[in-house]
Design brief:
306 residues, Porin, two-stranded antiparallel ribbon
């Protein structure tokens, strides 16, 4: 018995000794792995996250995307009439709203554009500047931010006595487009918006309209994605008398063309129209089928990096 006790005692001491020696070694190994992981993160190169969206438009509104430097975009935007207008109007296909636009990328960050729509015979021009780009690496930037501003001028002739000089026919839009590409399939965007109209016709209506937009894109296949967009009106008069713009659609990429097919409750195709002037009620069936077709042209070759 005494020999057994002596043996167990020695075994316990040896186990404690080995455990004491093994613990610092294990801790050292863990610290070494942690240090290597930190060094790897520090050495990770910074990479720009590109192709957050496929086109410069989400559906009605703009995305953070700008074309590459020297690229011109020809954009055709088309909205048919209301689907609930009945068979006599071929469920809206007899009517049409159209906007033709040209956009040009002065640089990889700066884009300019002009357009004309037949709604109120409106001309518009805009500037987009990608102020912040989402990146990965040792010091990642979580989102891309593009600043957008536009002016729209109504040239429709009226027979009333209201002062409609050129300045009073103009409206301005200011937006911050904030987007994040979470993975290769999912991108989301937030669009705080201010629209200023120089002329308002209704008592109690404000010249300034605030809205908050949200939207996203989910890629289903390499060339096919599902898009959604919603603008909530924040200014009381406008929110009470007009509808929030809603749109759902798909993107189809075919080489140099991008086809965007969608359904929306607004026939308007610029911010002044679809954010502040939408009257279609979704649950009443006031929906408009439409599409955007964009074609890119390389106007100026980009300089190669040596």
């Amino acid at each position: 018995m005494n020999q057994l006790i002596t043996f167990l005692t020695r075994a316990s001491l040896l186990s404690l000794l080995l455990g004491g020696l093994a613990t610092p070694a294990a801790r050292a190994q863990t610290d070494l792995l942690g240090q290597l992981e930190q060094d790897t993160k520090k050495d990770a190169p910074t990479q720009v996250v590109d192709a957050t969206f496929k086109a410069t438009r989400l559906i009605n509104g703009h995305t953070v995307q700008t074309p590459g430097e020297g690229t011109m975009v020809f954009l055709i935007s088309h909205r048919f009439g209301a689907i609930n207008s009945g068979a006599y109007n071929f469920f809206g296909l007899d009517a049409a709203s159209l906007r033709l636009g040209f956009e040009y990328a002065v640089s990889n960050r700066l884009e300019i554009g002009i357009g004309r729509s037949n709604i109120d015979k409106t001309y518009d021009g805009f500037l987009k500047y990608k102020a912040i780009q989402q990146t990965t690496g040792a010091h990642p930037v979580p989102v891309s931010v593009t600043l957008f501003t536009s002016a729209a001028i109504v040239t429709q002739k009226y027979s009333d006595d209201i002062d409609r000089t050129l300045g009073r026919r103009t409206a301005y839009t200011y937006q911050a487009l904030i987007a994040r590409k979470f993975n290769s399939d999912l991108s989301l965007q937030l669009m705080p918006t201010l629209i200023h109209r120089n002329l308002v016709l209704n008592e109690g209506e404000k010249n300034d309209v605030y809205a908050l937009g949200g939207g996203g894109r989910y890629k289903l296949t390499k060339r096919f994605s599902l898009n959604a967009e919603y603008y909530a009106l924040l200014t009381s008069y406008t929110a009470q008398n007009y509808q929030n713009a809603v749109a759902l659609g798909v993107d189809i990429e075919t080489g140099g063309h991008i086809f965007q097919l969608h359904v929306t409750n607004s026939p308007g195709m610029i911010e002044k129209q679809f954010i502040t002037e939408t009257t279609g009620k979704v649950f009443n069936g006031d929906l408009f089928f439409g599409f955007n077709i964009s074609r890119n042209f390389t106007v100026k070759q980009r300089a190669r990096k040596i």
